[in-house]
Amino acid sequence: MNRLSFFTTKPVDHACDLCGQPVKVPGFELPVPQASGKKFCCAGCLSIYQLLNPETITNDNKTENLS
């Protein structure tokens, strides 16, 4: 075994569309046509993207009016 192989990592398939960090956990994607193919590294980046692009918020992920 090459000593350096311990430090090598698998290439990342996709970078976060907000911050550029590697997307290592699946599930932080937007299911709307306006953001098709957008992937995020965490819930924080997904939320910030939605704040900056309100048209990407759907009824499925809007906060319900509790009043």
Describe, in plain words, how this protein is organized in 3D.
There is one protein chain. The chain has 67 residues and is low in regular secondary structure. The protein has a domain at 11-56. It is 15% helix and 0% strand. The chain has one helix spanning 43-52. The longest helix is centred in the last third of the chain and has 10 residues, at 43-52. It is globular and about 25 Å long. The protein starts with 42 loop residues before the first helix and ends in a 15-residue tail after the last helix. The mean pLDDT is 76.
What is the compact description of this entry?
The chain has about 70 residues and is mostly loops.
Distance between the termini: 63 Å
* C-alpha geometry: globular
* Helicity range: 10-25%
Based on DSSP secondary structure assignment, what is the total number of beta strands?
0
SSE sequence, one letter per element = H
Structural class: little secondary structure
Major sheet description: none
* Rg (C-alpha, Å): 16 Å
How many H/I helical runs? 1
Query: What is the residue-averaged pLDDT?
Result: 76
Low-pLDDT runs: none
The proportion of residues in beta strands is under 5%
What is the topological layout?
Layout: H1 43-52
List keywords for this structure.
67 residues, little secondary structure
